Amino acid sequence: MNDNQYIYQAMFLLDNGEVREQGFNAVREWVKSTLEKHGATVKVLRFWGERPLAYPIQGRARATYVLGWIQGTEKTVSATKHEMYLLGPVFRNLFLKEE
């Protein structure tokens, strides 16, 4: 992996139970701080809606979607994904490198 900086469009699926329990702003702040901890610069991180999933994931039928644009390296994305799969309210994420 290289250390070049890229812009990524990112989507995070949040557990609705966690969002109700902690509040959206607290969960959004967790996502932001996790990204920043691994070296990302968060350009935008916004609520995109609470929607049904195309198929159940771990017994969940709905999720709160957060859409963002971040700047970081491939290492940043890899480390962030790893942490989010192990901890916290994010149960799925997707990063797309902007051309």
Could you outline the blueprint of secondary structure elements for this entry?
Layout: E1 6-14, H1 16-22, H2 24-37, E2 41-57, E3 60-72, H3 74-86, E4 90-97
Antiparallel strand pairs: 1-3, 1-4, 2-3
Helix pairs in contact: 1-2, 2-3
Q: Per DSSP, what share of the residues sits in E-state strands of 2 or more residues?
A: over 45%
Low-confidence segments, given as residue ranges, are none
- Separation of the first and last Cα atoms: 18 Å
Total strand segments: 4
**Order of strands in the sheet with the most strands?**
2-3-1-4
Order of helices and strands: EHHEEHE
Helix/sheet category: alpha+beta
Instruction: Label the overall shape.
Output: globular
How many helices? 3
Summarize model confidence as the mean pLDDT: 94
* Helix share, percent: 25-40%
- Largest β-sheet summary: 4 strands, antiparallel
Q: Radius of gyration, rounded?
A: 13 Å
Overall description:
A hairpin with a 2-residue loop joins β2 (41-57) and β3. It is globular, with a radius of gyration of 13 Å. It is an alpha+beta fold and 99 residues long. The chain has helices spanning 16-22, 24-37, 74-86; strands at 6-14, 41-57, 60-72, 90-97. It has a four-stranded antiparallel sheet with strand order 2-3-1-4.
Short description:
The protein is an alpha+beta fold. Helix content is 34%, strand content 47%. It has a four-stranded antiparallel β-sheet with strand order 2-3-1-4.
